[in-house]
Amino acid sequence: IMMIKYVFIVVAYLVGSIPFSIVIGRLFKGVDVRDHGSGNPGGTNALRHLGKKVGLLIVFFDVMKGGWIILIVKLGLIDESTLFPVLLYGVVAAIGHVYSIFIGFKGGKAVATSAGMVIFYNPLMALGLAVIFFTVLKTTKFVSLASSSAAVGLVVAALIFDWTLLPYAIFLCALVLYRHKTNFKNLLNKVEPKITWI
Questions:
Q1: Distance CA 56, CA 47 (A)
Q2: Which pLDDT belongs to residue 1?
Q3: CA–CA dist 109, 103 (Å, integer)
Q4: What distance in Å separates the CA atoms of residue 44 and residue 48, rounded to the nearest whole number?
Q5: pTM score, two decimals?
């Protein structure tokens, strides 16, 4: 029983590390998404270069990476008392997504995986963050700005509504912002690509 919490940490990291954009891109389109656009194996690049259907499938799986342990705890399939705090597993999955053992410790930007953790932990908060994300996306057309705004929004929401979430929110926000540093440079240099579908 003592070991199970550690086993799940390893599993959370390994599941988080699965590069669904590469696996699904090759499977359905015969394309390695890293050879296109930003070269980033994340949801945005997948949506941009693999089409909406395949892209959304990848985003769905990336979201599930961050939330599946919280889901199985909520469904009563595993006793929460045998685990570390469930949010820790979401964070570990996000780290796996960013630093994947399967692709040389490279990866995406942790946005969808972090979102997955929040969706299953607190759906109402996730809805609020989705409103922030899509509002910024619609007004600016920059996914990087929308993602970063939602990440900051998560910290603010945790500060106001849920202090349990706060340390995890701060870590994930820092991770997301750090992973977008190239995008911020591109924004300053006015070369960041805009999206056209919203």
A1: 7
A2: 64
A3: 14
A4: 6
A5: 0.95
